[in-house]
């Protein structure tokens, strides 16, 4: 009892003593504040604003809510558990600002703006003739020319009209167990998915004995037909199962390295594109769960078949990627060598033939129509020509996308015998259906892979890939490790734990908040690179005050402080101005300005 | 049934007597009456015809009229009325209630009439019995008819279902099991309707989610048509219930998988995990509970019960994460994620899932053992000179097991459902995490299937437990026979 | 912090127990707990002094709390002096009792209990039920574990109420990027989270949400299930059959699955969370109530009431329900803890309350991603949950022992 009363006495003393020196909240708030963020809060009425987002973006929502609240807004959250309900809310216009993000997987700036901001674009809710003009103008320009055009576009999109409020560019990262893998062989590319064929063990004698163990979150694969999916569950897998006409380098330059072509060239006028095909890749198939070489070569007929079905909305049910390829007009084989001589390159210097000949051991002597007759040692090659609907050099970026992967004409035609218009999910089994590769009674693997690896089977926990025995045998692009096991681990924390306990060798897409953990683990190596993913706030353009009132939009825009995001992610994010920021450095920058917020908010309130 | 039919000629009268007895009993039970009449419609129709024809000749009505006039003549009704009125007045006086005279009269009249009818009925029956006659009721008609072997033989085929039902009713065990199964069937149906309705009412839009960002209205409409989402509530509900019964729920919205095949693939691991956890926790918790009960208020008791309480109070995902950090990342003893090829990887999930169950089973064992220890029969056993150990094992624990098994049966359901969290922590691709994942879309056939088949499993397990009880617990057995 | 709280409360309960053994009055125990809970709330609130600034109402609120604590100390002394076992208390104590009840506005329910207890004693003990009440209280106050649990719960309740005035809500919700992931210090007694919010303030404000969710999601099924069970048990036959069969359907779906289904179908927010948790546990309460009602209905006093001409509703709610409440109360106390655990599990699955609202499940989920690097973020909220659930279990066990004399 005495102890407690002593305590009470002590407390009284402390209270009385500190009462004089104690600062209360209003004391602090009334002081002149040069950080500025709290001054706007003195405004008489708060402006309601509804923020729509998926609940997975918890941290971002929190920061935005905090910033807007401090700038005199009253933030109402509309959190949706998944993309479907998020999209439904967005379509229904139940938001003022929507937290959105965009990844330019093809690495070209046009893809970063066309479907987002052009009138009538795939996901565009904006209609502004000035923007349309700038987008179309930039599409036909060369990189040197379009920097300025995109700068104007950003000025109009962000600063003049405030259609979006940019947040940040994310990093792309992966953690490698360097005790098992040779970290130098693991590529990290800005846009393209991880290439498996280069990865090697530290101890190269293990190549054939042990599997490379990777991880991805989704165990349900949308489809192993490249054109029927464009999401995280299959991007990496299909990229490694199907070779493409063209590839992207780690910093998003177009290259023929590691692709089906020796060389490619753009003809004058930017509407015709030529590809000189390789003859050392053949399809692999699965027999008794083992990969075997079919002996069937990947050739021009497969390329034409693949790209024709890629651009045709009605070639398969649930076609998910046709809009990426809408610029392709025709694709055909070139058999007349003279046709190559007569066309000039887009730079105006030299013929297409010269461009295609560059660096070949045996120059082009003859063009053949039959893929089996092609023989690079004898100078017999196959060439395909692609024509676009309008001058559009960025079509090459779309051809590097996994959806432009080359499938076997013969095999796909023999599997997809159903009538597309009358397709019945319960009866017809399309090529690449995940059920055909899932262990169980429905297992019937009919895949034909043109890429370095082929999927043998999968279950809920892992998918087993074997290397394609007919893929560029003997070259440096021949897959190093014989077996790749992809573990399906849904939760990022679990994946990280698995990496740290040695169950997986490589973890692709580490969250920024986990960098410290990985760096503190001596057996892991973290690799990271700026990616093409941009997060931004999209304003409602139809039915709310923000749609009509530019001042209100600008007030929100200048409330956003990108430094806070950078600080929260301990500088693992990069400032952005628009979705083209990762690709084109325009020199624009958004700075938070509470004074401007106050000014625009007052203007907005005056109109009410 | 076959044996009964062969034996019929010799024991015909016995059998028919038995049948008519059960038949009459069943008619008194409203739900059985309905099924009895429907299932045996052809036979009942004939009985009804016969009954209708012979009813006019029944002496019952005449006898009743006779009795009524006799009683009225004797002034029985007025006598009753007076008596009742007096009683009522006295009651009102006692409770100090004030009721108008008119109302009291009405009340009295009402009561008196009821009493009169009762007496009339009794009197008539008494007369009927003393005269050796029987009132011709529907059941009696049936009994009379069935006594005729020809009728019995002829009615075997059209009335087969009815006789089966009678046979079922006549055996209390079979009847109990049958009723229990019917009840489960009803529950399963109810679960299907409930879960479907919840999902149907959800404001979410599966089509927009699955088709992704490039979907047009036309694609969405097409999707809704393929999966029947454009149909009315009732037709969707019907097709779902049909799907559950025929183990064919069609394909899931996303991933193009057969729902039932996927569930069949994911169910075993959840079930295995649950069963191992269950066995493990029983193995640990029951001895702990018994020790705690026998050494009540000892240090052991306090320690065990405190640990059990901690086990009840710890959030399982947190426990799992702490386990992973220590045993996988720091010590490298056990894998952090589940992998079917590595049996070591199931150890941690089992422990995490079993913690809560062990805690509640230990507590339940302790309290029910304590309760049993104070029962009279334990005292008797002790008085008989049995050793403490024998008393404990042979009598106390055996009797204490009954509520323990109930708790386990209940917890089993909770574990099957609650395994979602454990599965998420350890990346187990089981039914629980499947339902949670599909919930976000929402993938209606998958969630329906997942929840309903879980509920079916739980119902079936509870049926088995109940039936086991019926055979093991003498108390339940006697109660069953009583009705 | 919570850990030390628990230790402290355990400590003083022990000290209190010794005194109780000497004086053996329930009032004394309650008075001691009243005072100590008040002081603990004061001490915990006083930690705000180390913050850069305090809320505007901090000083007045602390002064009021201090005055109230002084009054509680006086009340304790008076109780010690004037309240004796089996002796009637002088009516002038009624003023003290009234004041005590007033001070329970700070959330210190011990003061309320003490006030009521004193008033009961002043009014006398002719009522036979009062003796029973007396027994229950004595049994409960003698149970150290139960009193510890009750103390912790009332402490949390009281601090939840007082924090409205003594804590600054913005500390718990507003981001402070200059103070991200700081280790525990005097200004931030439990450190800061990844948004620079004070974990200590968050846990204090989170207690309110967790208590509300736990209590309401238990209260709803107790009321709904209780009514259904009572009606079912009283009327029997068809009513019973229909109600119980319908509830069997709910009973067959595991609670957490049902909750997941409801939340995911209608979105994650506090109201849906409470509803989801409530609906799943209606059948258990209905069954408990029904069994009790079946038992109680056979007692003579129910027949007497019927003979007296009481209506069904009156019989059920005046005679049957009050006499079958005991097992319901015990069950409810024991399952509030389970509701708190379920809430945190649902938060882990991403189906809990809105993320910026401080709630223990949310805090723990966020913290558990920092289990290794900033372990205090995961440990303290985890301990808080364990302590709360443990307290309800202790209290529930104590209540069961007190209400069910068969076992003691």
TrEMBL record, chain A:
Q: Which PANTHER family match?
A: OLIGOPEPTIDE-BINDING PROTEIN APPA (PTHR30290:SF9), PERIPLASMIC BINDING COMPONENT OF ABC TRANSPORTER (PTHR30290)
Question: Pfam families, alphabetically?
Answer: SBP_bac_5 (PF00496)
Sequence similarity: Belongs to the bacterial solute-binding protein 5 family.
Q: Does the keyword Signal apply?
A: yes
Signal sequence, start to end? 1-19
Query: What is the official name of this protein in its record?
Result: Peptide ABC transporter substrate-binding protein
Entry keyword set: Signal, Transport
Using the record's annotation, list all stretches that form the Solute-binding protein family domain: 265-604
Q: Which PROSITE patterns match?
A: PROKAR_LIPOPROTEIN
Domain of life where this protein originates: Bacteria
UniProtKB/TrEMBL annotation, chain B:
Q: Kindly list the places in or outside the cell where this protein is found, as annotated in its UniProt entry.
A: Cell membrane
- Domain ABC transmembrane type-1, first and last residues per copy: 267-469
Which chain regions cross the lipid bilayer?
34-53, 150-169, 181-201, 269-290, 302-323, 343-362, 396-416, 451-472
Q: Which InterPro entries match?
A: BPD_transp_1_N (IPR045621), MetI-like (IPR000515), MetI-like_sf (IPR035906)
Entry superkingdom: Bacteria
What PROSITE patterns does its record include?
A: ABC_TM1
PANTHER family listed in its UniProt record: INNER MEMBRANE ABC TRANSPORTER, OLIGOPEPTIDE TRANSPORT SYSTEM PERMEASE PROTEIN APPB
The family classification in the record reads: Belongs to the binding-protein-dependent transport system permease family.
- Any idea what this protein is called? Membrane protein
From TrEMBL, chain C:
Q: How does it sit in the membrane?
A: Multi-pass membrane protein
User: Which family, according to the similarity comment?
Assistant: Belongs to the binding-protein-dependent transport system permease family.
Q: Which SUPFAM superfamilies match?
A: MetI-like
Cross-referenced Pfam families:
BPD_transp_1, OppC_N
Ordered alphabetically, the record's keywords are: Cell membrane, Membrane, Transmembrane, Transmembrane helix, Transport
What's the name of the protein? Peptide ABC transporter permease
- ABC transmembrane type-1 domain sequence ranges: 207-396
Which intervals of the chain form a coiled coil? none
Kindly give the PROSITE patterns that the UniProt entry links to this protein: ABC_TM1
